[in-house]
Specification:
This protein has 61 residues and is an all-alpha fold. It contains 2 helices and no strands. It has one domain.
Length: 61
């Protein structure tokens, strides 16, 4: 068994037709990510950042 991940803009007409075609195939299982794509982008952006150092005396300012 092989797993393929395809990212599709579901708003376009061609993408909708492609998804409908894929659903007709009996050997394909479609799983959508349970995560909001915008949220995932924010998490990835956060992980890539350096962060900020705050001294403990300034923590509650």
């Amino acid at each position: 068994m092989k797993t393929l991940t395809i990212t599709i803009d579901e708003k376009s007409l061609k993408a909708k037709k492609f998804i409908e075609f894929i659903k007709t195939l009996d050997f394909v299982t479609i799983k959508q990510s349970p995560y909001n794509p915008e949220f995932v982008k924010e998490i990835q952006k956060s992980r890539a950042s350096k962060g900020k150092v705050i001294e403990t005396k300034d923590l509650w300012k």
